Amino acid sequence: MKFHKYQAIGNDYLVIDGASGQLTSSLVRRICDRHFGIGSDGILLGAQAPSDRGFVLRIFNPDGSEAEKSGNGIRIFARYLWDSGLVGGEFFSVLTKGGQVRCQVRDNGKHVFVEMGRASFQSVDIPVAGTPREVVDEHHDIGNEALRITGVSVGNPHCVVHVDVATPEVAHRLGPLIENHAMFPNRTNVQFVKVLGPQRIRIEIWERGAGYTLASGSSACAAAAASVRLGLCNGEIMVDMPGGTLQVGVGPDFSLTMLGPAKKVASGDISNELLENTG
């Protein structure tokens, strides 16, 4: 099985083609393991789709679960398509479980622009348990702390928590509690956000199915959208993460765009020994 490893501001994925029948949850976990496998934040399984649907992308978390969407994963997949000669400088479509996006590889492969769709704060879209509503600046007591949260769907679920100080310690302590809280029936990604100015924020991320993460494109989009919805930011927002910075555009209708890098790390073959004896 051939793999191609890429990273996008510290978020690393393996791109694998044509192995959908072999990728069981246990095999995904083994391949992503940083000690016993190749090591990655997930696996991108790509295929060409019929006619005008472009390309189909399935995204697997390192715990073996399947994600609806990943901003960094989409940029990596777009760069892989460009490296493979399957796309050029034109816009093209990628269909994920979280919806269809349009991509364009720019700057001779150095950056990828993605139209990420519209953010929704509606509980039924995220989803969040309880009566149908906009989940905006709600008060919840979690881990013996009073938190103000905003729920966002950008094709996958997010819980945005604005804080005075965003640190890895806060993400490690509260992230698992929020990810698995009963209010999120499909679990959730979590962002802890410090607003630095009207067009800049800093976030720490706890990713559903992956844990503490250096960067996340969809998290950057969700955090930017929530910051605009709360009146704290506007327009083009620079989102700083431990792994680097993404530029996120938030339109008046909460349509989202994302611009950031994606880099190739290596290509190789997964040995048969690694593939053996997985359920």
Key features?
globular; 18% helix; 279 residues; 18-stranded mixed β-sheet; Diaminopimelate Epimerase, Chain A, domain 1; alpha+beta; 2 domains
Question: How would you sum up this structure, described in words?
Answer:
The chain has two domains: 2-95 and 263-275, Diaminopimelate Epimerase, Chain A, domain 1 (Roll); 120-253, Diaminopimelate Epimerase, Chain A, domain 1 (Roll), CATH 3.10.310. Helix content is 18%, strand content 42%. It has helices at residues 25-32, 71-83, 168-179, 217-229, 272-275; strands at 2-8, 11-17, 43-48, 55-60, 66-67, 92-96, 99-106, 111-118, 138-142, 145-153, 157-162, 189-197, 200-207, 211-213, 236-241, 244-250, 255-261, 263-269. The chain has an 18-stranded mixed beta sheet that branches. The longest helix is centred in the first third of the chain and has 13 residues, at 71-83. The chain is globular, with a radius of gyration of 18 Å. It starts with a strand and ends with a helix.
Shape: globular
Strand content is: 35-45%
**H/E order of the elements?**
EEHEEEHEEEEEEHEEEHEEEEH
Which CATH C-level class of the largest domain is it?
A: Alpha Beta
CATH-assigned homologous superfamily of the largest domain: Diaminopimelate Epimerase, Chain A, domain 1
- Terminal CA distance reads 17 Å
Q: Mind telling me which CATH architecture of the largest domain this is?
A: Roll
Number of E-type strands: 18
